[in-house]
Amino acid sequence: MSNFSKTLLDWYSKNKRELPWRETKDPYSIWLSEIILQQTRIAQGLPYYKKFISHYPSVFELAEADEQEILRLWQGLGYYSRARNMHAAAKTIVRDYKGKFPQSYDEIIKLKGIGDYTASAIASICFGEPTAVVDGNVYRVLARNFGIDLPINSTDGIKYFKKLATEVKDESRIADYNQAIMEFGALQCKPKSPDCPGCPLNTGCIAFEENRVSKLPVKLKKGKVKIRHFNYLVFLDNKGNTLLNKRLGKGIWQHLYEFPMIETDRLLEPDEVYASLAQENKNPKDIVLWQEEPVVHKLSHQHLVTRFLIVEMEEQFDEGIPMENVEDYPTPVLVSEFLDTFKNSYF
Fold it and tell me: How many whole angstroms separate alpha carbon 243 and alpha carbon 179?
C-alpha cells in the first residue's frame, strides 16, 4: 500500500460522514445515491435519497412507477434526464436481470445513464471489483497532490487521470479507498480555501509546495453561454383554471410541464402579448405583468431570462387545470418557484 492511499484511508476512518448509503452494500441503494448526487451536494441530495428509497424501496417499485410521479419527486434537483435514465435502467434491470443488479463494471456501464464513474463506484463498493473512481473530488486531489496541470475535461486529461487513479488505488480495500479519496476531496481538499497546513498529505503535495493550490485542477473554458428569453403566459379562466403544456422536445426539461410559453429574442410587454393572442382569435380580459424585473434562471450552458404574464380570460377552459392542482404536475424549478409566490399573493 502506498503512503498516499494509506494516508487517505487513515483520514477516512476518522473523518467520514455517516450517510445511509454507507451503511449498506445493496447496489440498488448505492446506485440510487450515486445518480441523485451527480452534480448535487450531499446536503441537497440526502432528502431526495430518503424520499426515493421510501417511495421505491426496491428496483421493482421504481421500474413500475409512473414517469410523471418520478419527475415530480425529482423536482428541484435539475438535470431531469438523470431521473428518466434511472427509470429506464430500472426497467432494464427488472426485464433483463430479473431484478438482480448486474455485478461487474462491464455490465453495469451498459445501463442507461451510467458512465465510468458510477459504474466504478458501484462495482467497487458493492462487489469489490478493483475499479478506480474519478469524479470532481478525485480530479482535484490528484491534480494538486501530483502537481498535474493537464485539463481535467480534455480527452488526454480524462485518460491520464483515470490511469493515475488506477495506479495509486489500494486494491485490497477498494471500497473504502474509493470512498476515502472522494470524501477527502469533498471535506479536506476543497475547491476553495482548503486547510492545507492541516492536511495530512501536505508533505508530499506538489501544489502546496509550489503554491499552486488555487490554480489546480485546470479546466478548459466552456463555450459561450446562450441567452434565451421565455415569456410564460399564465392563463386564468373565469373559474380560476389554468393551462399547462408538456415539454416533448429533446431540449431542457423533457416531459416536464410548464405554462404556455413564447420564446423570443427579447422579453415581451403585455400589449405585445395581447396583439399576438388577438391574431389567434383569443381576446383576454386583461394581461398583467407579474413582476417588472425578469427572473434569470442559469443552466450549465444557457441562461433563461424569464417573465410571467397573467392572462385573464372571460370564458372557461374545456381542459383547464385548477390552479391549486398545478403543484401535482412535475414542473421546472423556475415554474415551481413562481407558483409558490403566485399562490400566496394573487388569490
Answer: 47
What residue segments make up the domains of the chain, in order of their start? 3-215, 226-345
- 10 Å Cβ neighbour count for 296? 11
pLDDT tens column, 5-35:
999 999 999 999 999 999 899 999 999 999 9
**Going by C-beta distance under 8 Å and a sequence separation of 6 or more, which residues neighbour residue 162?**
116, 132, 134
Fold classification of 3-215 (topology level): Endonuclease III; domain 1 (1.10.340)
**Runs of H (alpha helix) within 115-261:** 116-127, 136-145, 155-168, 174-187, 206-209
pLDDT given for residue 139 in this prediction: 96
Catalytic positions are 34
Contacts of 178 (CB under 8 A, 6+ apart): 120, 121, 124, 125, 132, 133, 169
What is the rounded average pLDDT of the residues 284-290?
87
What's the rounded mean pLDDT across residues 210-237? 90
pTM for the structure as a whole: 0.79
Cβ contact 180:10 at 8 Å: no
- pLDDT on residue 278: 79
* β partners of residue 312: 236, 286
Residue found under cell 479519496:
181
Q: How far apart are CA 16 and CA 132, in angstroms?
A: 19
Three-state SS string across 78-147, please? CCCHHHHHHHHHHHHHHHHHCCCCCCCHHHHCCCCCCCHHHHHHHHHHHHCCCCCCCCHHHHHHHHHHCC
The fold of the 226-345 domain, in CATH, is Nucleoside Triphosphate Pyrophosphohydrolase (3.90.79)
pLDDT in tens, 338-347: 988 887 665 5
Q: Do residues 67 and 91 lie in contact, with contact meaning Cβ atoms separated by under 8 Å?
A: no
Please tell me the total number of residues recorded for the chain in this structure: 347
Burial class of residue 36, CB neighbours in 10 A (0-12, 13-18, 19+) = buried
Cα–Cα distance for residue pair 133/30, rounded to 1 Å: 14
Residue 337 grid cell: 418557484
d(CA 182, CA 179): 5
